[in-house]
Specification:
Blueprint: H1 6-9, H2 16-38, H3 44-61, H4 68-75, H5 84-102, H6 110-120, E1 139-142, E2 148-152, H7 160-175, H8 181-195, H9 202-216, H10 227-233, H11 235-246, H12 257-283, H13 288-298, E3 303-304, H14 305-311, H15 317-329, E4 333-336, E5 343-346
Antiparallel strand pairs: 1-2, 3-5, 4-5
């Protein structure tokens, strides 16, 4: 029978590498939270971009997609959802907004998790929304030949309510004992995914809960940089580390370390990306063409147009292309190759 006990098991996770990751995140938090608090009005654009990217990426992992134009309108609440996918995207948007706006008032317990799950499905009328799973489920993968293989067997449906209750109690108990929440969060998320408490939506709920746990512990970088997008971009590693940490989970012998290292790496990546965007978007006061120019100038090696747009998600494709054309005319950048793989480097001779 699975036991949930975090107050002792976290100690063996303090490896030199994990301690180094924790130290880096604590430093980023101290530096950037002060900046966020004093400049929140200037970061509205980053907040809106992160909402769009988070909603898109988290749903995309599960194969839930729509067009870019429809996605933006749905996230900005400027249209009503039409298809089943759009209804699920709208539900994710609403839960994400709830967490952004009210995380301080959302306790970590099974009843509130059920309410969030219900909101995730409120537009499509699914009867399982806001309810724990009614039948046993499996976590499976399909190989290249189309054969299905069971990767993990979650807790049975009948045992799920008690498991969720025990997991939430163990997490809150550990927090009250001043254990670093950065260690507890990935342990909680891994256990949540191993319980797999819902008939559908477990992956998306795990990512929403990730944001909720981070915000409640003061790590609010996910408001401005999409944690979900970082996970989506590294989803192969995400699934590998999740599987590695869930081995022998039912026997209380699993090792949280692989998933913990991945989780902390994602948080660090978010802080680094935030730092880079702030430098060009806020501190420098540059206009959009100047920001594009600086991105290329500071980039080591060649950079593609898509990479530029990824670093400047608030700048349109048209503006990026126009700026690249102007920089080429001025001989400030050099164009490499052509076609879809065209890339650019800064012309050092112009320095």
């Amino acid at each position: 029978m699975r036991q949930f006990e975090y107050k002792e098991s976290w100690k063996k996770l303090l490896t030199p590498n994990i301690v180094s990751l924790l130290t880096s995140i604590h430093e980023y938090k101290g530096e950037q939270n002060l900046f966020i608090e004093s400049n929140s009005d200037k970061l509205v654009e980053l907040l809106e971009i992160a909402k769009i990217q988070s909603t898109e990426a988290s749903n995309k992992i599960e194969g839930i997609i729509t067009t870019d134009d429809r996605l933006k309108k749905l996230v900005m609440d400027k249209t009503m959802p039409k298809s089943r996918s759009e209804k699920e995207i709208a539900g994710y948007r609403d839960v994400l907004n709830t967490i952004h706006e009210s995380y301080e008032y959302i306790p970590i317990n099974a009843n509130y998790i059920l309410q969030l799950h219900g909101d995730l499905y409120k537009y499509n009328g699914m009867s399982f929304g806001g309810k724990f799973k009614s039948t046993d489920n499996i976590i499976a993968e399909v190989d290249s030949s189309g054969n299905q293989k069971i990767r993990f067997q979650p807790i049975e449906a009948w045992a799920t309510p008690e498991a969720m209750l025990n997991m939430c109690n163990a997490y809150n108990d550990a927090l009250n004992n001043n254990i670093d929440p950065l260690i507890l969060m990935p342990m909680f998320i891994l256990d949540f995914l191993c319980i797999h408490p819902f008939n559908d939506g477990n992956g998306r709920m795990s990512r929403l809960l990730t944001l909720l746990l981070l915000y409640k512990s003061g790590y609010i970088v996910g408001k401005y940089i999409s944690i979900e997008k970082l996970i989506e971009k590294s989803k192969d590693t995400y699934y590998e580390q999740l599987q590695a940490s869930s081995y022998e989970w039912h026997d209380n012998k699993n090792d949280y370390e692989p998933f913990l290292e991945y989780y902390l790496g994602v948080v660090i990546a978010a802080y680094k990306e935030f730092s880079g965007r702030v430098q060009t978007l806020i501190e420098s006061g540059m206009n959009k063409p100047e920001r594009i120019r600086e991105v290329i100038r500071k980039h080591i090696g060649k950079i593609t147009k898509s990479q530029i747009m990824e670093k400047c998600p608030d700048i349109s494709d048209t503006t990026v292309q126009r700026t690249l054309t102007e920089l080429l005319k001025k001989n400030e950048i050099i164009k490499l190759s052509g076609g879809r793989y065209t890339s650019y480097i800064w012309n050092e001779e112009k320095e």
